[in-house]
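2024-03-11 09:14:02 INFO worker-7 job=invfold-0412 stage=load source=structure_tokens
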């Protein structure tokens, strides 16, 4: 049932739009205890990431559908626990502009670029939905991110340079009577209020038990 579910998830990749930058990467965290016994308890864990909340929820529906399909094919029962993850990052343009100006002065314009969506996720995405935020990145490392060869190879660039750039940004925002910060706050249009954000996250918490033999399910909030 688990293998059929994984095959169903893989088949769905053809339906993911490139512009949505969907990333689904499941792993089997438990697959049995003995090689000659059919496992009674198999567990999968996966992330669903994307460029927009709408794209993430659409992919999430497809993943859940594949999990139910695996259970139905074998007549197994699947328990699907859905937890909210990090939201897509939405940098405030004015804060982004200020940071870039300071980065140009510190490192030179030829060393700076705007990368756009990078397919990863961070809790700053959640913050950026309810208030002005910026999440810049800097070099200073070598190897593959999250790989066993990842290494901070330039400590000054990795540790000191970000501190300098963020300190300059703080000066720009708070100079005088914090006019620039107040302007950014006044002009910013949050995607969600705090109340809307909490309600959105709470509704994602779901526990579904699907009986593949009868095709029936029970769903409850967590």
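2024-03-11 09:14:09 INFO worker-7 stage=emit residues=222
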């Amino acid at each position: 049932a688990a293998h059929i579910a994984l095959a169903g998830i893989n088949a769905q990749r053809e339906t993911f739009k490139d512009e949505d930058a969907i990333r689904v990467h499941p792993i089997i965290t438990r697959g049995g205890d003995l090689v000659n016994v059919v496992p009674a308890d198999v567990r999968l864990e996966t992330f669903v990431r994307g460029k927009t909340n709408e794209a993430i929820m659409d992919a999430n529906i497809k993943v859940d559908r594949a999990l139910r399909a695996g259970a139905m094919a074998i007549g197994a029962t699947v328990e699907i626990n859905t937890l909210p993850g990090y939201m897509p990052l939405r940098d405030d343009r004015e804060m982004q502009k200020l940071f870039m100006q300071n980065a140009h002065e510190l490192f030179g314009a030829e060393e700076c670029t705007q990368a756009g969506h990078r397919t990863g996720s961070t809790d700053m995405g959640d913050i950026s939905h309810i208030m002005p935020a910026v999440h810049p990145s800097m070099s200073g490392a070598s190897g593959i991110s999250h790989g066993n060869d990842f290494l901070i190879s330039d400590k000054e660039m990795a540790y000191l340079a970000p501190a300098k750039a963020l300190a300059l940004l703080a000066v720009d925002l708070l100079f005088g009577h914090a006019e620039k910060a107040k302007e950014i706050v006044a002009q910013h249009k949050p995607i969600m209020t705090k109340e809307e954000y909490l309600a959105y996250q709470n509704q994602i918490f779901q526990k579904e038990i699907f009986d593949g033999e009868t095709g029936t399910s029970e769903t409850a909030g967590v």
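2024-03-11 09:14:09 INFO worker-7 stage=report msg="The chain has six helices and nine strands."
2024-03-11 09:14:10 INFO worker-7 job finished
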